[in-house]
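Lecture 7 notes: from sequence to structure.

We start with a single chain of 114 residues. Read the sequence below before looking at the structure.
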Amino acid sequence: MTSNTLVLPRFEMLTREQCEMIHRSSLEILRRTGVRVYHDEALELLRQTDAVTIDGNLVRFQPGLVEWAITQPPSRVSLCRRGSDEVLVPLEGRIASFGTGSDCLITPTASSLP
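Now the structure, written as tokens:
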């Protein structure tokens, strides 16, 4: 007899220690390896701080700047239709949006909800 069994991955929350390890590692990556920035205006803004090292478009961030930036999130982020100010998804408070990517954004409407 053949059994049809669906095996789903288990979801487990990270511990505080695991989160801190990931954070410390990301700070080290941003400091040593850096990221390439292809937006000229962003590069100009970054050049105005002493907390980054810029080589062409490769930017390396000092941990202090990253730690400061983490404390500065906006209270609201709106996902809008391309080329429009029409808000598709207002992300604020405890509202979050998960998907496969911005190119596959699907928002629920009253008619699509059960």
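The beta strands are 35-36, 52-55, 58-61, 76-80, 87-92. Keep this in mind for problem set 3.
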